[in-house]
Amino acid sequence: VAFGEAVKSPSDLRFKYPLAPWVHHGLVLAAFFVSGVLLPWWGILVPAILAGGLGSAAGIGRTRAITGALGALSWVVVAFVQDVAAGGRISSRIAALMGLPSSIFIYVLTGALAAMISALGAAIGRLIFVGLSNRAADQE
Amino acid sequence: MSLQGTEMPKFAALRRHLWIRIFVALTVLVILTTVLSHRIGDMPELGPLLSPYHGLWAHAPSVFEASGRAERLKVAGLKNRVELIVDADQVKHLFAENDDDLYFAQGYVTASDRLWQMDFLTRLAGGRLSEIIGRRGLEFDRFFLRLGLSTAAKESVQLMLQDAVTSSALKAYADGVNAYIASLTLARLPFEYRLLGHLPEHWTPERTALLMKLMAYNLSGHSLELALERSRARLSSQDFDDLFPLDLGIQDPIIPKGMKWGFNTKPPQAPISEFKPDLKRLEPYPAPNPSNGSNNWAVTGKKSSTGLPIVANDVHLDFQLPSLWYEIQLVSPTQNVYGAALPGAPGVVLGFNKSLAWAVTNGGSDVLDWYELRYRDEKKLEYLYDGEFRPVISTETPIKIRGEKAQALLTRRTHLGPIIYEDSETPLRASIPKGLVMHWAGLEASNELKTFLLLNRSTSTTECREAILTFQTPAQNFLCADNRDDVGLWHNGRFPIRWKGQGRLILDGSTAATSWQGWIPREEIPSVRNPDRGFVSSANQLPADDYYPYYLGWPFESPYRGMRINELLREKSRLTPQDFISIQNDTLSIPARELKPVLLDAVKGAELGQREIAALEALKRWDDRFDEESVGATIFDAWFEKLKVRMWGERLGESKYYMHPPLPRTIKIIREEPNSKWFDNPGTPEVETLRDQAVIALNDAVADLGRRLGRDVNDWKWHKARPTMFSHVAKLPGLGEKVTVRGAAQSVFSNSGGHGPVWKLVVALGSKPKAWCVYPGGQSGDPSSLYYNNFMEPWRKGELREVVYLLSAKDANPRLFRQWHLEKQ
């Protein structure tokens, strides 16, 4: 469906997609990086909500999963780059600080947090899109 | 697409409740992000902390850590250009055209490495920790506010700002720190700011004064009175005098024995008094570990391989990360000084310049007494003093607490000093008595910074002597040597005149007879210059022998480190800088050397188990050195500790709560009085001797070591038995370090596990000085930086690196890393 068309069934949520999926996901990932630099930590929600609402070829579950994975990737990659620049000392210090047995857990925790917030953002984006779309359709 | 089965009604329901679902989802999201943005109990705010863009992951090294060619950096506040040369260890070498720019640049570069540490320590000293860490800081705040470091710092900074030497230095340094703070972005905030979620605070000269007062408290704020008073309560007067004699006999004082004092002073006599403090205040609670001091020594030209003085200093304080010290070289038309600076204060505290080296150990003289008051009534609003009642001055100070309403703290003072704790309160530090008044010389307005700034530019030992004259608290043993072969050592500070033994126990606060009776004149304080023996040294021991007329304190540090240093200095007719480094790394324990044969002899022929016999064999092979892999060191230490428990612990109580006799007295009893009554256990009908107690203590020690370190005696390495820990300055977990390193409290390489040498320096004076140094830690305060702890490994091994001492900014040296031109904006 396009915006303004009524969503009548779950299948309607599987949009016909204007962009190739890898282009779309690439753009979403880029948006995650930009929001990370420009916004506070919760800025990760902005691209997540947009990604959820403005299009994904998948259904709501898959959209959530993909957006969550992209959000996690955007945090873990940046964390990894910084950690490498510091010789791996950042992850080991944070892990010790939080009482975790290994540095890998701090990556897992960081990725999980980003994934959870982005997936929730994507779901909300999708629900808002559906709601607004239906309201527009009803008004017509 | 068609809908099948039950999908249609379900989806209809979904559509009907869509806005409810959006509302619920949004609510969940808001709650989740709010929870993740806030600290809940001990759980930190995970959202901002784990964000790799702003949180703990963000790697924000000092701008000066980057490598590359010379660069310009515009800094607002400079008058002229300052050359900053960074060497391979991130030591900064500053070359300025005037002193204001020099101290400005020092403030700027120190803040770039250690801003959070400076900020945190001054908040701690000022009683403002709760502002950043919440309720967990309350006990510290209550203690420091009542102690009154903040008030003392306010009064001291007035003196400092009126003094030509310190005034401009303090202001320029603060401007430099503030210029750095102004250049910071949120993403470049030091690690701990991001972790604790607070921001840097404007730096002021008063904060420098607070740091100086905190150092004074750390070095001269210890009290033995309470633990000693508890022990006195358990002994007869005769036994107390036997175990805790004012004259401990075995001593090798700082000023060589037999010194002829050039003055004829009669010290005051103790008043006749039956005063004993209220025993209710003496109820036991854990006491802190004792400190174990510092070492300094120097040889004159006649005992030096270079023909000119060589100086050594190793300063022993609590092990912490980031390191307490910050290595730096400061060059201007008035000085070219190198050494250890205190992050937060201008100038160099321990170091050398082109002509002079100075080295400092804690004096240890007692400048803190406790007084018990006699109140008019239960309200405790007035106290008796020399026949008249005086009012207690009470004030309420607000304590800001992060995330909570501020609390009002009642502080009470008398003319003698503050009452730190009321009877109903639990002290932060166990050695602080409740309900008593503290009289501490460190609370007076003073300007110790002036001494260090003058030392930085002094060119001779005579000028050094002038520089230290105004130094008050904490009393230090100042050693100075110049490149004209003039060497001196001064036990230096402001010492109250007291009768012999005054203040080692709690005093009666109702009479002026127990008050301090003026100050010892500076010219009558113990000192030595160019002695015949060709060397001077100090290791916190007794400053002078019994013929010195004034009472300075009791019991000082055990004499054994000092004795060992003097023994090694006497061994060679001429010493090299490498010999000095070897002495600093010496781990031989004189108590062990003296006691081991006595203890082995005491258990000869006793019936022992196989493991005890194996332990004794390891002990026989031991060379009396506390090296990290040593097994004998572990066995000796455990055995002696158990023996002390049997001698004193069962009679007086645990050493955590009760003072046990000083080490020289205990050693004398073991060596010379094997049938002493102090070996007898009063709870048994038999009369025990050294032999009986030594056998039991050995069995106890071996059993204990077996439980802790395993069955195999060969695995009982010293570093396992007594691990060495470096804590983060705010005790944050994961930011400290466990290190395998040698040393024991009584060896020259002094190490009690959490306290030891935190700065080591050896300087060979000459036309151009050569120096070697190391300290545990690194230049950076950032835990993710390579330079946070890169000196730890050489320090652990006892390796000192040669200092890059530059005469000009154009000097070439292969260890130089990068040059910066700091220019005015």
Overview of this protein structure:
The complex is a heterodimer of chains A (140) and B (825). Chain A has 140 residues and is mainly α. Chain A contains 5 helices and no strands. Chain B has 825 residues and is of the alpha+beta class. In chain B, the strands form 6 sheets. In chain B, strands 1-28-2-3-7-8-9-10-18-19-21 form an 11-stranded mixed β-sheet, covered by helices on one side. In chain B, helix 4 packs across helix 10 (205-220), helix 18 packs across helix 19 (632-652) and helix 19 crosses helix 21 (690-709). The longest helix of chain B has 27 residues, at 99-125. The N and C termini of chain B lie far apart (70 Å). Classes of the chains: A mainly alpha (140), B alpha+beta (825). The A-B interface holds A 7-12, 36-37, 40-42, 44-45, 75-76, 78-79, 82-83, 85-87, 89-90, 93-99, 109-110, 113-114, 116-117, 120-121, 123-124, 127-128, 130-131, 134 and B 1, 3, 7-8, 11, 15, 18-19, 21-22, 25-26, 28-29, 32-33, 36-37, 46-48, 50-59, 61, 191, 195, 732-735, 783-786, 788.
What are the salient characteristics of this protein?
heterodimer; A: 140 residues; mainly alpha; 0% strand; elongated; B: 825 residues; alpha+beta; 11-stranded mixed beta sheet; 6-stranded antiparallel beta sheet; 33% helix; globular
**Main β sheet profile of chain B:** 11 strands, mixed
Arithmetic mean pLDDT of chain A: 83
Strands side by side in the biggest sheet of chain B: 1-28-2-3-7-8-9-10-18-19-21
The secondary-structure class of chain B comes to alpha+beta
Instruction: Write down the overall geometry of chain A.
Output: elongated
- The low-confidence parts of chain B are 1-8
Coarse shape of chain B: globular
- Computed over alpha carbons, the radius of gyration of chain A is 18 Å
